[in-house]
Amino acid sequence: MLTLFSNAHNYTTSITVGYLGVDVDWWLWMTWLLWPLIVTFLLPLTIVLLFYITGVILYVYKLHRERLINAYENNFWDGAIKTVAALWDAHGWIWHGYELNGLENVPIDSPALLVYYHGAIPIDLYYMISRIYLIKAKLVHTVADHFLFKLPGWSIISEPLKVIPGTVQTCSDILKENNLLAISPGGVYEAQFGDRYYRLMWKKRFGFAKVAIDAKVPIIPVFTQNIREAFRCIGIGRRFWLRIYLWTRLPIVPIYGWFPVKLRTHIGKPIPYDPDLSAEDLQKKVASAIEELICQHQKVPGNILRALCERVYNPLNCSKKKT
What we know:
Number of strands: 9
Shape: globular
Mean pLDDT: 83
Strand order of the largest sheet: 1-9-6-2-5-3-4
Radius of gyration: 24 Å
């Protein structure tokens, strides 16, 4: 009797589901098969969440300005920036096993221009700035693309963290005030259309070289190993995306990933100011220095699985120890 009832119940359920036009097994299978694809495209959106968490911390801090200003007379934002830096540094250590090599090349008491390779999302820049601030108590000013300043809530982040749209004159003035400044000549273009071969895509951009010459400061080359394996831009329809970018100047190429690959930022030796170098020659010299860092620390073409394995094993380091 119980068996008959159970069969009747299953039959009724099957009829109901069929009547509604829903195949439960099909939906379960499709969800299971597509889940990795869904996750790889949704994970990059979590970086937006981290940015807004940063904004909330800074906004709450600003609301209590009167209470906190006495505690940090020299630098009102110091406590908030340390909190935000600790948040990003912890995330980098947990998710990517983040390491920063060559920190001794970053000066504390003198200005310098840090020039870095731009990944699909420059998550490595946020980790590097946080680590430098926590260890050396030196805030790195950053040049960002103009579209970021149109995002809601961005001003509360850009003000204390010293993020600027950047012109040659404003960048030069910042350096002349004895600050550190980070810039990527490739910018959004390199971010969207770079690939796992890690070629620099600077075109004829040498504004950063003009800044360094005008401010008479050294340039420090920076590269992060596996940054292209953490985030990837889709390669399908490259010409289509390029046309849209040239028309809008907006980063519209879909991004997927945030894979927990090993990230190591390598800070190279400073390239000293040379009054005899033109902006074009200095650009070539800096590009060669970054390409050398890529050659030393990155296997090309990049591979996500290999980058994941480097969380526990780094053949590049092992080979160096043997020589």
